[in-house]
Amino acid sequence: MTDLFNKNSSLLEITEKYPETIPVFTSNGFGNMDNREQREKLGGSVTLGMSLMLKQIDYDSFEKFLIEAIEAKNDKTDLTLAGDDRGELQEDLNVVGLLPCPVRIPMLESFNSFIESYKKESDVRIKHELKAASMGLDWVENNIRGVEDASELPDLFISAGFDMFFDEKMIGRFKKQNAFKDTTGLETLNSSFDKIDLKDPAGHYSMISVVPAVFLINMKELGDRPLPESWKDILDPAFENRVSLPVGDFDLFNAILLNIHKIYGDDGIAALGRNLLESLHPSQMVKSDRKKENRPIVTIMPYFFTKMVKEGGSMKAVWPKDGSIISPIFMLAKREKLDILQPVIDFFASEEVGSVLAHSGMFPSTNPNIDNRLKPEDGFMWLGWDYIYNNDIGALISHCEAVFDSALVRGA
Hints:
The chain is built from 17 helices and ten strands. By secondary structure, the protein is an alpha/beta fold. Among the domains are: 11-72, no CATH class; 212-325 and 399-411, D-Maltodextrin-Binding Protein, domain 2 (3-Layer(aba) Sandwich). This is ABC transporter substrate-binding protein.
């Protein structure tokens, strides 16, 4: 335990005493810590231990990053990252992406170790910015805004969701230039996905994991309604204004919109909009039974957060019988750099990373050697490559959002 701060130190206290820690907070999902007014308003009443527990970030690992920032003081490098030194090395690689908050720090720790060993073996410098997924896609988009030639892109992208990867105004246009190649070597994916085909038949996109969406049912509020066990059930008028959705989690929310639209069309999206009660962060969703009023009956949330549900309480986790809608965690590797990029690709497709994703984050891994700890009946609902390649996904997301918002306005 450091004597610089402890679990009971407030965020404001830490950042006021050690302003060099602010970039550590902001790059790990504490976006409001970059704003002094927000720090003073919220940071004074929230302890470090409480905030890390809500974000499901390991305290000991995060403590190390804060101490590194404090000890470095005048070092302008983002100390949640490594491998960005400016030595006289022969080659450069640039790795950019968003990692789910629950697994970001352990993945970074492993990646930092890999970088050091790879640099010693090959004299290849790896610059990387792997931010918390809560930072949002705008940050990643800044890395490709104004880029017209694929050679100017970062060498490897990692992120969840469909938004940026298939949007013809974003990375989708570079796919048409044959800029990316799947070289993970995973000819057979994890048996958890035997009933769906996650492997890109065109060989552009790699998928290392998925974020599953499940239901959390407030049994006290359910009353005499039948237990919802499928996505069709969630659209039933019986749940009008009684469903909570992760609207702020764009990756998963858009995956839900796309899959509902594929099966149920605009009517399904409108029904989902009418049934929306409110948008909650997943850490709030598991406590929604404690709300004094307007309690949701159903909360749709990432599978990871179900482990925060108190046993014996009124909240029941349900894996949809027609399959958990998944938001894929994609990896895009630039074809022209594969000669020196391949070891990095192998790292992210490895059992080591797969174990972190599946066991620390409950994000099932595609690596065939990982035990995803799922039940045999836990299936998935996947948009499908034919559907992805035969539709303008960016335009379809915009259309679904418009239909959803219109239903909200009418239902208000």
